[in-house]
Amino acid sequence: MKKIIVLFVSIAVSFSIQAKINSQAIHVEVKGEGDPILLIPGFTVPGNIWYPLVEKLESKYECHIVTLAGFGGKEPVEFPWLPKVNESLKAYILNNNLEKVTLIGHSLGGTVATWLATQEELDISQIILIDALPASGALMFPNFDPETLMYESSYNNQLLTLDDSMFEQTATAMSKNLSLKVSEQEKIKNWILETDRKTYVYGYTDYLKLDLREDLKKVSVPVNIIAASEPYGKEIVHQTYKNQYANMKDYNLIIAEESGHFIMLDKPDWFIEQTLLILSNQ
């Protein structure tokens, strides 16, 4: 009997591990009909952040709304997380025969959209980036070297071991830097708390390691960037984007004044108006 129990437990553990390995790196909801648009949210953010925009798009466009593994209650995947996300999105575009697809991405989602635009096999018509950089790590670390960013670090270990109360305090503090609206800060905080903790910690390491600055030379489609003016001000924002996108042949930079990082939450009507204008000019 003991052997049977041990065997059963072994099978159950094996099944659990295999299920996690086989879980999806991306989850996609499709709304509307017409030319395809793939919408990729930022770090910790579920795809439903795009719903207000999709309501304006779905009569003319087929909207593919992405939620990434580990976010919005979705199951996590094995690490490294971000390479799996990138390759899964690339495979999704190819497997669903999305032609002349527009990519819209916020923050991390914009970085991923930029990576997709460098892939020769994909038929991308344009990319719209919302407060997104090709190398966020280079902005945070003066002597940036992706190879030095490891999962095993004192900072990561501290985040992993924080109790729920302390982690909520951390999430609250972070949310205040991402939106100017108190009501939206609460929403952002809750998205952070809903995120799988390991994905939050190790996934962010993946994000900081990604450096696409050299790859920008491969982007040949129209690029529109909507950047937040706060908290640094327009002058610094212009200089930051000029430095980060120096290798991109051409792009149009639009500044969202009096807005934090979550432009679609701080200035929802203006954001939708700008996006529709960009799409109408394509």
TrEMBL record:
<dbReference type="Pfam" id="PF12697">
    <property type="entry name" value="Abhydrolase_6"/>
</dbReference>
<keyword id="KW-0732">Signal</keyword>
<dbReference type="GO" id="GO:0016787">
    <property type="term" value="F:hydrolase activity"/>
</dbReference>
<keyword id="KW-0378">Hydrolase</keyword>
<dbReference type="InterPro" id="IPR029058">
    <property type="entry name" value="AB_hydrolase_fold"/>
</dbReference>
<dbReference type="InterPro" id="IPR000073">
    <property type="entry name" value="AB_hydrolase_1"/>
</dbReference>
<feature type="domain" description="AB hydrolase-1">
    <location>
        <begin position="37"/>
        <end position="273"/>
    </location>
</feature>
<feature type="signal peptide">
    <location>
        <begin position="1"/>
        <end position="19"/>
    </location>
</feature>
<protein>
    <submittedName>
        <fullName>Alpha/beta fold hydrolase</fullName>
    </submittedName>
</protein>
<dbReference type="InterPro" id="IPR050266">
    <property type="entry name" value="AB_hydrolase_sf"/>
</dbReference>
